[in-house]
Fold:
Amino acid sequence: MIVVLTGGTGGAKFVEGLRQVVSAHDLTFVVNTGDDLEWWGLYVSPDLDSITYAMAGLLSKERGWGVKGDTFFCLQAMGELAEPIWFNVGDRDLAVHLLRSKYLAQGKTLTEATTAICNKLAVQARILPMSNSRVETRVDTPVGDLSFQEYFVQRWYQDPVKSVRFTGATDAEPAPGVVDSIMSASAVILAPSNPATSIGPILAVADIREALRQTPATVAAISPIVNDAAVSGPAAALMAAQGLPVSIAGVVKAYEDFLDILIADVRDLEAANKLDRPGLRVHCANTIMRTADDKAKLARTVLALLSAENARAADPS
Amino acid sequence: MIVVLTGGTGGAKFVEGLRQVVSAHDLTFVVNTGDDLEWWGLYVSPDLDSITYAMAGLLSKERGWGVKGDTFFCLQAMGELAEPIWFNVGDRDLAVHLLRSKYLAQGKTLTEATTAICNKLAVQARILPMSNSRVETRVDTPVGDLSFQEYFVQRWYQDPVKSVRFTGATDAEPAPGVVDSIMSASAVILAPSNPATSIGPILAVADIREALRQTPATVAAISPIVNDAAVSGPAAALMAAQGLPVSIAGVVKAYEDFLDILIADVRDLEAANKLDRPGLRVHCANTIMRTADDKAKLARTVLALLSAENARAADPS
Structure:
């Protein structure tokens, strides 16, 4: 079983690649819930949705989030009712939010609600929220303490970031299955997600980070930073606010206590050669995923590296 | 102030007529909530919605319920998630259900939620739910005890009706403003709604029925029964189950303790002449509302009768 830690649009793209080259039965996803929000009275979990839609073949490739071909008539009506509409919810997407909210109101955990939704969409991979308790990514800026979606979507990540914190993380337990799956994995992959706010909240749950340190499986990460800048989104500012260099060195630092393999972009070959981390293997590949084929190729490359690593570990001669 | 008791599609049509001929500021609606249901985890109040949409100019004329020009993409997605979709909710309609549910979850009463939605839609009439406590119309049939929507929408009102009851009615208080508005009205109109399950639940709240008995205002009802059959829907079977004749005599019997004027259809002239109810004035008019003009004409006729009645009362010489 391959375990993938993921969040954000970069993570979802990589999952679309994995889906093309690995049987869904062999995949377990541990998904960031730090971006979750209450919206129109519903519980919305953007990263769980993206991974679920990606595995169901429903993810919009144009937008990178939400359901392909979706319409926005309810959103438009909400705007006419003078309700906030800065967070985009499509009419088909809304069905999943309604269903999840109904399950949670019935007393189901987020894990149970996610499994039920996956079953309904015939998703055969195992998709796990990182935790069933609320861990919330908060971004401190000159205009105030913002939720991640307020910072990212409502305000277009234009505010300078003073600090990032994950409220509730200290007391949060990993969701059922998360630690077990990491400990028994054949390999663990950290998707090319923002280390600060997509993977960061997952690692802020202490028992998950500890499992990554303890697992006998090889842990590989794909860098979302290329040429000292984020491939997309606000990763650079958020990493800087956490004291991380905005470079592949910063990615390595974020994961330093458990990372075995870094997959950096080919454009970072020089930086990769300069990395001085005994025991860390660094490989370069094309990490920019524009087409379905790019996504599949990157997934294949990562899997091949992990296979080679496992073979090497089995026969160290 | 004219107070209108209403529910169902007949009621909504009549309200569309009133809207054309009376200033919205002069209208107060007391609306049936016995049909309300929880749907996809949301609180849905079909009759409050219909009257609100009618007064906002948003009611679908083709369907007689919901928002004109609405789409059903969320409903379709719910169907694909194997959720029940027998109760039709449009994408724009959904916005109002989301908003009302959010208000109720915040602790607002149904009255407050309704007022807030009316304000957002610039509805200037006063729309009041009959009660802020839950009164539920239950229809006992050979297949079991059904909610009104299960009986009416899900099962196409095909089941024989053994009895109808209004659970919660005994303990229900009228919503704030209902009794005051009836007591101080210039006239009270019972819309051409089903006496059994559209007006019936309102009258089952004892203090509302008592206010209708006590009010100095003239109380007029428009018959939804023409030629011993309902103009639309299941009124006949439901009236029969309540021991009411399916005729204008049955309508009069349902309202016998407070009715001053009955507006019957012209097709019931003979039946109207046979009615033997001292003190009751019966008028015949075209009550079938096919066009906007039909609706306005009926509203004008009813208002003219009430004006004449008020003039007569003011100068009984």
About this structure: The two ends of chain A are 26 Å apart (CA to CA). Chain A has one domain: 1-40+124-317. Chain A has 13 helices and 14 strands.
